[in-house]
Known about the structure:
The structure is a homodimer. Chain A is mainly α. Chain A is 60% helix and 9% strand. Chain A has helices spanning 22-47, 71-92, 99-128, 131-138, 141-158; strands spanning 50-56, 62-66, 164-166. Chain A has a three-stranded antiparallel β-sheet with strand order 1-2-3. At the A-B interface, helix 1, strand 1, strand 2, helix 2 and helix 3 of A face helix 1, strand 1, strand 2, helix 2 and helix 3 of B. Chain A binds a DNA duplex through residues 5-14, 23-24, 26-28, 30-32, 34-35, 38-39, 174.
Amino acid sequence: MDNQRKKSVGHKKIEIKKIDKASNRQVTFSKRRQGLFKKASELCVLCDAHVAMVVFSPSDKLFCFGKPNNIDTILNSYLNETTEFEDVNSLDNSSTYEHEEYNRQYEEALKMLELEKKKLADVKILNKSDWWNDSIDDMSIEELQQFMVSIKELRSNLDQPMLCRTMEFLDLDE
Amino acid sequence: MDNQRKKSVGHKKIEIKKIDKASNRQVTFSKRRQGLFKKASELCVLCDAHVAMVVFSPSDKLFCFGKPNNIDTILNSYLNETTEFEDVNSLDNSSTYEHEEYNRQYEEALKMLELEKKKLADVKILNKSDWWNDSIDDMSIEELQQFMVSIKELRSNLDQPMLCRTMEFLDLDE
DNA sequence: CGATCTATCTATAACTC
DNA sequence: TGAGTTATAGATAGATC
């Protein structure tokens, strides 16, 4: 009978740790990457923010997201503002005794900064290898079509021209 | 009376378009940025993925997120795989009549690729200007403290060492 | 595989303090 | 301003096709 079939157990709570089963991991990745990009899009539209994102999947697929229209414009305004920050800093200097406490945190921050710089260096290497062209040249026509479908879906979701790109490379081992 | 007070109307449906009121926009940005970073973290942990993300807020604050431990490792394995893609492509070439249809899409894809490359160039400029150091030097001690708190919160949420960084600059006009 | 469904879980808009 | 609350919208785990 139809109503004898258990329709669905629904969305069970899951622990945030690496999913063991590779197939489940891949499915979850696909769903959550989609969700992440959608959230990023919404943030951009709702709050007039700018997001650039690079995601490497467990199976070494590469996904990129960006609404980068005018990063340089934002950069310029940021550079203009930095001159004013100095005034604010000198105000903070009046309470000198708090500095020592914060100095440790500052040191810790600098260490993380080193890691971040290392990350960005990696991104630069990625750029220099010209993988944008390499990868699209090596994409199969089918994959390219799928890629365009993804873009069009996202476009219609946002109901506006959007600079979003999704690249998928074939799984050769599954 | 207490039960006369309307507790909350809850989460109303909202249209995805720029929020007019600046204060609301800022609040929504803060909440949703937090949510976006959390989602990115979960994706990394659950699926063993790698995410690097840069967010510019409407008020020109800068937020970064990354789990970049070994991007170069992933890059290497990616470069190794690309040689095999050519075999797959030659298989697709057997059905030649489908190519013309897809060529338009290919052209369109290349155009978007140009935009993406422009974006990455902007990121490179950002890198060359050494804003990592510039900005932390210009951060007030208070902001730096807040930054460290954010990192520690995220660390405890993930319950593991994590390469995540959040930078906030003072609002001078509010 | 990918698409769909559905019950749940999670994120969050509006509100309060 | 920032931190909590609540109810609802939205995301998604597991199942099915």
